[in-house]
């Protein structure tokens, strides 16, 4: 078929384009701007794309895939609708062409989706099951966020965000789960959900899709997930998970991570990541039992220790005896708090300088004005930029960063600095570092975007410390 993707420049859409081409389809695409790394990848894969949109480009195509960021008024969309061409969302295309006939592991939840998805895929692959993969990230070793194989299993990140302008339900409702993982359920995506009840509705609908011979795994620490899974228990088996409990795979003792008597040295750290690993091991053990693969536990633990991790998740960009620079994707207040706590536990004796850019749709808004004021506990210094796009939300709905700064000393016990933008933040870091001349410092930069390209400057600053 001739398939055209409108919005091909996004990571997920570009990856889908590659998978469709591997199936033998003739694939093309368009976007307002296509930048590295996706522009380079599309050229490498031999997929033609156009900058900008033109109604002529969709004519003669058998199927149009319309990305989540595309809306009415786009000339290609208008031509598709006017001419009656067949069209689907990205998620529906995955359902139809990639996931059909597979046993799908859908990893959903407010936090930890990307890491857990990559981890389950890695564990299954290391024991020889050859699973497929679709996830919004890149592993630290450069492995991309997708893989299309002839294996029976497929692991996919289940995003609760809406699907397309013509389909406002969550993407994960298209993904045919045999196994569903629910890592957490907090309020997020304030631009499309008015309250947590609306998100819970989407998760409840996801559980209705899990077959009787499948299974749902939910974090025991989330009472709302327990309730939702309880409501679905008549038809679906569910299992609560937590690490460091009597029945857990993973136990924390003597300041180290164990499984039984085996000491583990994974390449990640922090309670939230140990929970991710706990559920990944449980899902994979269940699958290996059904596949009659012997000595499953030891094989999985070997694979756990070889997992390279995910880029922009606790990614150490610089490390010396006295200075560390870490980049992390944390942007929700729960994730910010968990990340700081895990870093403090992993690097005792270091004074933490937390840098935060409110960039996500939710962090632009004041729905977590209070929660952010408590999220930076454990940081010696906290620097927060003004929200990324002041025009994105109205003033009465906007996160008030200056007001937040005033609350931080009392609520988080940290020395706060307001920064008008990332460039101003770098200058403030430069000025404050001499005060820590005798200390070991760890700079933790948290943003779900590029953070104004500050990382080379931060590397230079920490690298110049003696």
Let me know the CATH homologous superfamily of the largest domain: Mur-like, catalytic domain
Helix/strand class: alpha/beta
Mean pLDDT: 94
User: C-alpha Rg, in Å?
Assistant: 23 Å
User: Beta-sheet strand percentage?
Assistant: 15-25%
**Continuous helix count:** 14
CATH third-tier fold name of the largest domain: UDP-N-acetylmuramoyl-L-alanine:D-glutamate ligase
List unreliable stretches of 5+ residues.
none
Quantity of strands, as a count: 23
Total domain count: 3
Main β-sheet: number of strands, strand sense, barrel status? Answer: 7 strands, mixed
CATH class division of the largest domain: Alpha Beta
Please state the overall shape, judged from the principal axes of the Cα atoms.
globular
Q: Report the end-to-end length measured between terminal Cα atoms.
A: 60 Å
Q: In which order are the strands of the major sheet placed?
A: 8-7-9-6-12-13-14
- Bin the helical content: 25-40%
CATH architecture of the largest domain: 3-Layer(aba) Sandwich
Describe this structure as you would to a colleague.
With 466 residues, the protein is an alpha/beta fold. It folds into three domains: 2-90, NAD(P)-binding Rossmann-like Domain (Rossmann fold, 3-Layer(aba) Sandwich); 99-306, 3-Layer(aba) Sandwich (UDP-N-acetylmuramoyl-L-alanine:D-glutamate ligase), CATH 3.40.1190; 315-463, Protein-Tyrosine Phosphatase, Chain A (Alpha-Beta Complex), CATH 3.90.190. The protein is built from 14 helices and 23 strands. It has helices at residues 11-22, 38-45, 75-83, 90-98, 113-126, 196-207, 223-231, 271-290, 296-306, 333-346, 369-374, 401-412, 422-432, 455-463; strands at 2-6, 26-31, 49-51, 63-66, 87-89, 103-108, 132-134, 146-147, 153-157, 162-164, 167-170, 177-182, 215-219, 238-241, 251-253, 256-259, 262-264, 315-319, 323-328, 350-356, 381-385, 415-419, 440-446. Strands 8-7-9-6-12-13-14 form a seven-stranded mixed sheet, with helices on both faces. A six-stranded mixed sheet has the order 18-19-23-20-21-22, with helices on both faces. Strands 3-2-1-4-5 form a five-stranded parallel sheet, sandwiched between helices. Helix 1 packs parallel to helix 2 and helix 1 (11-22) packs parallel to helix 4. The chain is globular. The model has no long low-confidence stretch (mean pLDDT 94).
